[in-house]
Every structure is written in C-alpha cells, then in structure tokens.
Amino acid sequence: MTTARDIMTPGAECIGADEPVLRAAQKMTEIGVGALPICGTDDRLKGVLTDRDIVVKVLGAGKDPAQTTAGELAQGEAVTIGADDDAQEILRTMSEHKVRRLPVIDGHRLVGMVALADVARALPDSQVGDLLEALSTD
User: Fold this and answer.
1) Nearest CA to 12 among 1, 131, 34, 123?
2) Is-contact 79 93, C-beta < 8 A?
3) Cα 71 vs. chain centroid, distance in angstroms?
4) What digits encode the pLDDT tens for the residues 18-68?
5) Fold of 4-136
6) What is the DSSP secondary-structure string of 42-91?
7) What does pTM read for this prediction?
8) Domain limits of the chain?
C-alpha cells in the first residue's frame, strides 16, 4: 500500500503566522516552491500560503506584503493528510477540497508535502487523470 509518507516531499518548511508575506515570498524563492504551510507559535498548522494567494490577495488587493502577515491569509482549518494515509485517501482529499498540495502530518507535526507532481510520479496514469479532471471542474 502506497502511503503519503512514501510519495511526499519530506522536510517541508513553514512560514510563521506572524511573519510578513514578503518573507514568505522570499522563502518560496529561496527553496523553489510555490506554497508554504503556515504554522502558529504552537507549531500547529494554520493553513497553506500559495504564490497565487500572495499575488491575488495581497498585491492585487493593494496590500503591503511587508505589513500583511501570513496568518491573515490562513482560511479556516487546514486541509491535511496523515503520513500513513493511503493513496486513495490522498486522491479523495485532493479531489474533494480541490487542492493541488497537501501538508502531511504525523500526529500534529508537519513532516512533508504531497503535491500534484508527487502524485503524478507515484500513481497510475488513470488515477492521476481522474484527479486532474476533478481539480479542473467547478
């Protein structure tokens, strides 16, 4: 059985909820990713900040990325996957919530990220195609 732990990219880095969005953008550039988990001071996941969030919700809205915190952009409860959840659960969660990236948690600790590219490399084409179709429809 293929699990999230098997296909995730380990060692995901967080942006603190109190850190400015500008720092998140710099961090994304430094490590070459398009999304960062948002972690609170309690080390719990608060959400995921994407490069698109920065463009649309900060820059496009005329906000100052140096004054806007990552936590301000966290919406509701974070959609996550357990490290030992199987591939079918990953597909179901991504499809249901229409997300292309899932933080992987072990207990309450962030251990990695599963992105659409990870799924595409690890799972059969038919399952990946079904996921892409689900993500592309409203």
Assistant:
1) 34
2) yes
3) 14
4) 999 999 999 999 999 889 999 988 778 888 999 999 999 999 999 999 999
5) CBS-domain (3.10.580)
6) TS-EEEEEEHHHIIIIIITTT--TTTSBHHHH--SSPP-EETT-BHHHHH
7) 0.82
8) 4-136
